Amino acid sequence: MTPTAPTKPATIGAPVPSALPTPIEPDAAKGKRFVLGVSGASGAAYALRLLELMLQGGAEVHLVVTEYGRRLLFDEAGITHLDFANLCPTITDARVAQRLVIHPNKDVGAVIASGSFLHHGMAVLPCSSSALGYMATGSGSNLLCRAAMVTLKERRPLIVCHRETPLNLIDIENMQRLTLAGAIVCPTNPGFYLKPTSVEEIVDFMVGKVLDLLKVEHGLKIRWEQAGD
Ligand SMILES: Cc1cc2nc3c(=O)[nH]c(=O)nc-3n(C[C@H](O)[C@H](O)[C@H](O)COP(=O)(O)O)c2cc1C
Question: Taking 90 as the threshold, does the pLDDT of residue 28 lie above it?
């Protein structure tokens, strides 16, 4: 018997609005405000791409980087100094810099440590096992974890993009605890069904997932319907 070629499942419900001509439109996230936490796990490229697209989409971004997050940004992206020019070298419009606010991780008195500071969600990308553990215990001893705790208590989206493999039981239990508290655990775990041909496409796959979870429309190629395009 001749094997039949696998067919793609029919799309359920309305088509997903994913076919934007550009990775992100200038007003895709206009009027939105996000918190981005970067901890010391591998994957600096994910954080930099997410930051770039959020800012290009018109969002205000509050960035907090842990000490080891800084080390990763240096080791993996050569970033020696945390400022707009180094973090977003592709954005030439200097006005965009006004929408990036960088907070010291030690400053647990920064605005993002308060629930009264309104925002549309926080992503921790990449998230180390250490940051995962701190968040799972409700620790607010540094700004990244404090901002995450506040995001949870205010019932706003908290996207935890953990990077480590394999997982031990402690990681798994921490993920369960955070999930029960309302976070979305979204490991940096890209799919390959769209046949990526570059590291950038693999990075965009993950970043597109996070943008979906933060409800920011984008044109990154991440949809199963696009397989074979
Ligand atoms: C180059 C480098 C890569 C690392 N990659 C990971 C990783 O992928 N996942 C992880 O959980 N920890 C990783 N670590 C270890 C964490 O950085 C370390 O546990 C640190 O204490 C995390 O602190 P933070 O969560 O405050 O950033 C890495 C460390 C270094 C120096």
Answer: yes
Q: Give the closest residue (by CA) to ligand 1 atom 26.
A: 66
Domains of the chain (ranges plus CATH)? 33-226 (3.40.50.1950)
* Structure tokens belonging to residue 24: 């992100």
Q: Which of 21-25, 38-42, 130-134, 201-205 has the lowest mean pLDDT?
A: 21-25
Q: Does ligand 1 come within 6 angstroms of the Cβ of 42?
A: yes
Q: Does pLDDT of 36 surpass 70?
A: yes
- Tell me if 178 sits within 8 A of 135, measured CB to CB: yes
Angle at 96 between CA 90 and CA 45, to 5 degrees: 40
Q: What pLDDT does 13 receive?
A: 46
Could you read off the pLDDT of 176-191 as tens digits, one per residue?
999 999 999 999 999 9
Of the chain, the end-to-end C-alpha distance in Å amounts to: 29
The pick from 74, 130, 164 for probing ligand 1's pocket by mutation, whose C-beta has the most ligand atoms within 8 angstroms, reads 130
C-alpha–C-alpha distance, residues 193 and 177, integer Å: 31
State which of 36, 38, 42, 134 you would mutate to test the pocket of ligand 1, scoring each by most atoms of that ligand within 8 A of its C-beta: 42
The whole-angstrom separation of Cα 67 and Cα 51 is: 18
pLDDT the model gives residue 226 = 83
With a 6 Å cutoff on the Cβ, whether 25 touches ligand 1 is no
